[in-house]
């Protein structure tokens, strides 16, 4: 299940101890709408092993600024609170799987 990440719950999510995948998106972003179903599938496939969440950049300035997000979609791959990898723009499911597998 995809977790909705907000400025309010961000610290709690990051302190869970699991690897985290953050999808930065916005409702008005066409490429984000292409990536969204892939992120949803990955969240189901990796449930319990990886936290996969979506950050709406229009509603969460704190997280967006903290990571210096300038283009969307941007997907960050985080382990032990360190960014291990990053993908800017739309990508295939296989690309995301490869990056998630590096986290676990």
Explain what this protein looks like in three dimensions.
It contains 4 helices and 5 strands, in the order E-H-E-H-E-H-E-E-H. The model has no long low-confidence stretch (mean pLDDT 95). The radius of gyration is 12 Å and the shape is globular. With 104 residues, the protein is α/β, with parallel strands linked by helices. The protein has a 5-stranded mixed beta sheet with strand order 1-3-2-4-5. 30% of the residues are buried. The chain has a single domain, classed as Glutaredoxin, CATH 3.40.30.
Q: Counting H and I runs of at least 4 residues, what is the number of helices?
A: 4
Structural class, from secondary structure content?
alpha/beta
Helix content: 25-40%
Mind telling me the CATH superfamily name? Glutaredoxin
Q: Which ranges are low-confidence, i.e. pLDDT below 50, for 5 or more consecutive residues?
A: none
At the fold tier of CATH, the topology name is: Glutaredoxin
Protein traits:
alpha/beta; Glutaredoxin; 104 residues
Quick recap of the structure?
By secondary structure, the protein is α/β, with parallel strands linked by helices.
Write the SSE topology.
Layout: E1 3-5, H1 10-14, E2 20-25, H2 30-45, E3 51-56, H3 61-66, E4 74-79, E5 82-88, H4 93-103
